[in-house]
Amino acid sequence: LARRAMAGRVAIIGAGPSGTACLRAFQSARENGASVPEIVCYERQADWGGLWNYTWRTGTDEYGEPVHCSMYRQLWSNGPKEGLEFADYTFEEHFGKAIASYPPRAVLFDYIKGRMEKAGVRHIW
């Protein structure tokens, strides 16, 4: 089958680790000369990070919308960071030193945001 040039529009639902990984992949493809569709990323929260973005709110927000199911503030990862690390951005690169294999929620949230800020993805789409 012949490959067609990518065209159209793509909606990414959620700006957690998976959604931001998709944004970064499209950005990388564009930087390498690929034809990339128009991208729109929808995120319900005020900030990126998905469930790693903690909120104390429960019930409904100020607009009457249900609040997402946030992880609790003191949560620690039950998977090693080595399995959560992005291929193009290491924990050591982000923090400038080695960190424990099972980091707390706040550390993972900081890492996810740091990757997007370093790549400049947030300001492109």
> Using DSSP, what is the number of strands?
2
Helical coverage, percent range: 25-40%
What are the low-pLDDT stretches, counting only 5+ consecutive residues below 50?
Answer: none
Q: What would the average pLDDT be, to the nearest integer?
A: 87
Strands of the biggest beta sheet: in what spatial order? 1-2
> Gap between N and C termini, in Å?
31 Å
Helical segment tally?
4
Helix/sheet category: alpha+beta
Shape: flat
Fraction in beta strands: 5-15%
What does this structure look like?
With 125 residues, the protein is of the alpha+beta class. It contains four helices and two strands; from the N terminus they run E-H-E-H-H-H. It has a two-stranded parallel sheet. It is flat.
Would you kindly provide a brief summary of this structure?
By secondary structure, the chain is an alpha+beta fold. The protein is built from four helices and two strands, in the order βαβααα. The longest helix has 15 residues, at 17-31.
